[in-house]
Amino acid sequence: MKISLVSALLVCGYMAFAKANEVCLNETEYDFYMMENLVTDVRKRLASLKENFKEMVNAKCQKTKCPQSSCADDWVSYNGSCYLFETVPARNFEEARAFCKQRESELLYVQDAAENAFIVRMLGRLKSSAHWLLGLTDQGSEGKWKWIDTSAPATFIKWARGQPEGRTRQNCVIYSSSASYHWHDTECTKRYPFICKTVKSTTGRQQHLFVH
């Protein structure tokens, strides 16, 4: 009798556990289902807003030629170029450069103060990282800073006070929010968010330009 009672309790306990586990799994599946539906709904709403925006622009520009952005999705247009602000995952100098090349672009090179001011404004709006990697390096010759993907010497520089300071240890460059996004030299092996840049072609598609 005692054995039968213990067996019955064990069976009931196992069934209760299995039932609870089933409920847990069902709740988890339901959460994923609701999340998936939410993401789908957001995508539809974004697509709708994008179409409404296009219609609004066309309505405003019926008698004039409206400017058309030729940058791909997720890229930002400025003065004939497209910029991608990439945060996840962070990459070191060579990894970031390879990522940009795969997307037919270059690791950021900055040509003048106006372009740099645009980038700083974007970084201030994003606020997703304290540091951003750009394509400036003196790896080839200490103290001679050049843009890695254009091989052009840097005619525009925006060093923070006391920078560069790393000498042969720090041969790459980042924007630093603690220095109002002025530039700091850093080790090329460290990982940061980074910025890709490409020039827009006259055909309305992005093009990459390498000067070697």
From TrEMBL:
Gene3D superfamilies: Mannose-Binding Protein A, subunit A
Domain of life, source organism: Eukaryota
Signal peptide limits: 1-20
Stored Pfam families: Lectin_C (PF00059)
InterPro entries: C-type_lectin-like, C-type_lectin-like/link_sf, C-type_lectin/snaclec_domain, C-type_lectin_CS, CTDL_fold
Keyword vocabulary terms for this entry: Disulfide bond, Signal
The C-type lectin domain, residue ranges: 78-197
Entry-linked PROSITE patterns: C_TYPE_LECTIN_1, C_TYPE_LECTIN_2
Name of the protein: Perlucin-like protein isoform B
